[in-house]
Amino acid sequence: MRTYFDCIPCIVRxxxxxxxxxxxxxxxxxxxxxxxxxxxxxxxxRKSPPVMGQRIHRLIRRLTGNVDxxxxxxxxxxxxxxxxxxxxxxxxxxxxxPLQKAVRLAIAGNIIDFGVTSNLDDLNVQKAIEHSLTAPxxxxxxxxxxxxxxxxxxxxLADNAGEIVFDRLLIEQIPLERITLAVKGSPVINxxxxxxxxxxxxTDIVEVIDNGSDAPGTVLEECSETFRRRFNKADLVIAxxxxxYETLNDVDKSIFFLxxxxxxxxARHIGCEIGSLVIExxxxxxxxxxxxxxxxxxxx
Amino acid sequence: MRTYFDCIPCIVRxxxxxxxxxxxxxxxxxxxxxxxxxxxxxxxxRKSPPVMGQRIHRLIRRLTGNVDxxxxxxxxxxxxxxxxxxxxxxxxxxxxxPLQKAVRLAIAGNIIDFGVTSNLDDLNVQKAIEHSLTAPxxxxxxxxxxxxxxxxxxxxLADNAGEIVFDRLLIEQIPLERITLAVKGSPVINxxxxxxxxxxxxTDIVEVIDNGSDAPGTVLEECSETFRRRFNKADLVIAxxxxxYETLNDVDKSIFFLxxxxxxxxARHIGCEIGSLVIExxxxxxxxxxxxxxxxxxxx
Lengths: 300, 300
Description:
By secondary structure, chain A is α/β, with parallel strands linked by helices.
């Protein structure tokens, strides 16, 4: 997905929120703000929003000298979600449709996203869990169910720390030997890395690889060669969250995007409301010529 | 008031909304967006937000070749407010405290501000009128009443078209010979100019001057020499709206600001909620040293 005009003021706001979250130093706030404004003024709008997100968070880490500013947030939400894991696992086991319940919870966990907002607490997550149990699912669950049953080599692209506990609940509904879980190559925002996968026990149950990149999404040309081989080889990709949707939406591959919609541009792009629980299977833009229509239909 | 970091993403969003309001040409949307981002990346944050607003709207007018893009909006709200004038005038006449009622309505009219949002309709204005009749007034009405009674030479700085009908209701509560009304020198957003003052009959009842400037506020150094002389000579200034607050808040002059608060930065600066009806009398920052404290207390 390209960067829409509407993304720009939001990117500037997110950059300011993020640098304030990481440091109280107003000189650094100003420097980040000015550099982001400059970058945005010359940016290639054909690139997806996470490309700018990557640049912003590299800048924040460089200026603050903090290589992993969201470490405590990631630890907090890993623990928070692990504390709820037994109860949620029980809910799934007692359900008449465990896969559906697990999909709902995996999408609920996508609320734990510090890219969109830096104001997130336990209560927001608890509410998202409750909402997910009964809210309508936008998308074709049966198509997802069938594809998951048939696929022999599934690549599951994680999004955030904490959220990966909810992913674990879904992964446990699929034959584990068919799944590889991919996390980020190094810290960016609160995206999950291998350390998080270890903390929540995912490395004990499935193969975990990293994508070699620090983009808050999956920018294939920035990922490692190893990751790209695994991506190409997989017969099904399950991609979590907005960042993966924004970066992989146009890729010619069988991908299910599971996400909670948190911004008006993506809501419009998918055709749903903010807050929706989405299972989206996209046909490649390059083969369908759909992208061109979308750009025309977009708001800018 | 200086430009706070929080103003920046909002300025970018406002610029995008404004250019979309004025033209459907996406190439112009992009050009405005990129130029505003660049300007913001190098801007002097000691200047007030309306200085950037002036630059943005000059750019939009230049790129679209439309010297007065908000003309129809201004005409609409002048008519809308004039249609309600007899009923509101009657409300004031029947009130036990006509000045208070007129102050409330003058502040209510300040909702008609296309600088803050381009989404404003008759219903918003009707609701603001009703809200203003009973909502708490933040500020010292008795101080305002006393000052207005004592002053011999009052300069009333208008803000927007449509709103000036509400200003007329307040002006009519003050001996007319003591009042001069000042409007903008040329079109910017939906700010009132002499044409609007004529349309709503203000030129028939008080002296109307223009300030010689197209800033959406009162940037004194940009105003005409004639205006500045009148400003300096006045023993009381009544200044309407956020733009005047932002540009005159630090000026060493007896000024009452009447405004409806529409943004979080001004709400924090004044110490009130968004939506508040405010009568604010500021002591000059330069004589009190208050500005320095405020900057420390600010959020960026």
